[in-house]
Design brief:
The protein has 14 helices and 14 strands. It has about 400 residues and is an alpha+beta fold. It folds into 3 domains: about 120 residues, no CATH class; about 120 residues, no CATH class; about 100 residues, no CATH class. α5 packs antiparallel against α8, α5 packs across α9 and α9 packs across α11. Pfam families: AlkZ-like (PF06224).
């Protein structure tokens, strides 16, 4: 139970923080995608369309979403798409890549490489020394090409085409290609990143590129740095929230909290944490606000405990069976429904939680739908993880 002497941060204050710090209230919208990524620490990148839709919802001039995001990702490399927390693909500010790699990536990478070597050995495939030769050759080929698909790299290093049977005799037996598994390992290790996609901004087929050069950091120091940034963007949060978002052990979370001097606060859920000096209130947005956020949006996925902005009754309609959130409709800091793009491009939405959602809210939500429809134009997209409401509205 939280100590009554701790500062209290209630639901209204948390929603006000979300509106301003996550660039969702109109007055808080950003000018560039880099500002959005910096404000959120990380943009979910498992579904490529999510990156653009999350940025577009937060830009003052949404019409510039696609060219500006492509500039930041592929021309200036101010943003990088790479593996991060919980072995998930994110888009990070480039200056954060070393912190992410040291704080979360290397521990996961060690397990991934060991798993690959073990799986290959079970299948009678070549050993770790052979794999290291292929890796060095592939990285050299990628350096020469600048960007390349796995198929293009395999033309330079044919051993990438080698296949081996995974989980032989099991119900989930399959055939893996060295290139697919090795590039995944190199991605988690921070040696390669996702490059420009094959096709439009919704394409799931990406080229690979060498990761930007970065210093080697101490893991504990990197964890403290990452947690400080995340609490500044998303605090307050419970220990369970922090453990879930980072994928760290509870001992690592507690060590990082102590290192940054995080302050304990009282939440409706119990004890939470904010960055040092961040216990005071933030200014409530001047006007009510609406937002249409995509599936896997970092705001909707930012906390494990979400009752302060999402009614539990809505979860079955808005999440898939694996816990991935679909497209959500927001009104004044809480999720009130879901939305989808129909085959003709229409943005259809539905309110599921009608408490406090009147005519003003409906008009604001429809305005956001029109804004989204305008900048998306003729592009069609389907969330990678589909939810009941999204499927129904998509028709």
């Amino acid at each position: 139970m939280a100590d009554e002497r701790m500062p209290y941060i209630g639901t209204a204050e948390r929603r006000a923080r979300l509106a301003r710090r996550h660039r969702l209230a109109p007055a808080a919208r950003a000018a560039r995608p880099e500002e959005v990524a910096d404000a959120l620490v990380a943009l979910h990148g498992t579904d490529p369309a999510t990156v653009y839709l999350a940025v577009g919802a937060r830009l003052a001039d949404a019409s510039r979403t696609v060219p500006e995001t492509e500039r930041a990702l592929y021309t200036e490399r101010a943003l990088v798409r790479m593996h991060g927390m919980r072995h998930t693909v994110f888009v990070f500010p480039t200056e954060l890549t070393a912190v992410v790699r040291a704080s979360t990536g290397l521990a996961v990478a060690a397990r991934e490489r060991a798993s690959l070597v073990k799986d290959m050995a079970k299948a009678g495939a070549p050993d770790a020394a052979w794999l290291k030769e292929v890796e060095e050759s592939a990285l050299a080929a990628l350096a020469r090409r600048g960007e390349a698909t796995a198929a293009e790299l395999a033309r330079d290093e044919p051993r990438l085409r080698e296949q081996f049977v995974y989980a032989a005799g099991k119900s989930y037996e399959g055939v893996h290609t060295v290139s697919s598994r090795l590039l995944r390992v190199l991605g988690v290790e921070g040696k390669v990143v996702r490059g420009r996609p094959l096709g439009s901004w919704t394409s799931t087929q990406a080229r690979w590129a060498l990761a930007p050069a970065h210093p080697e950091l101490d893991a504990a120091g990197a964890q403290a740095d990452l947690l400080r940034r995340w609490l500044a963007a998303c605090g307050p949060a419970t220990e369970a929230d922090l453990k879930w978002w980072t994928g760290w052990r509870v001992t690592e979370v507690r060590r990082a909290l102590a290192a940054i001097g995080a302050r304990e606060v009282r939440l409706d859920e119990g004890t939470g944490f904010v960055a040092e000096g961040d216990t005071g209130p933030v200014e409530t947005p001047d006007e009510p606000w609406a937002a249409l956020l995509p599936g896997l949006d970092p705001t909707a996925m930012g906390w494990q405990q979400r009752d302060w902005f999402l009614s539990p009754a809505q979860r079955p309609a808005l999440f898939d069976r694996s816990g991935n959130v679909g497209p959500t409709v927001w009104w004044n800091g809480r999720v009130v429904g879901g939305w989808a793009q129909r085959p003709d491009g229409e943005i259809a939405w539905r309110v599921l939680d009608e408490e406090g959602v009147g005519r003003e809210a409906g008009a604001a939500i429809e305005a956001e739908a029109a804004r989204l429809r305008q900048w998306v134009g003729t592009t069609r997209f389907t969330p990678r993880f589909r939810t009941p409401v999204e499927r129904e509205l998509a028709g």
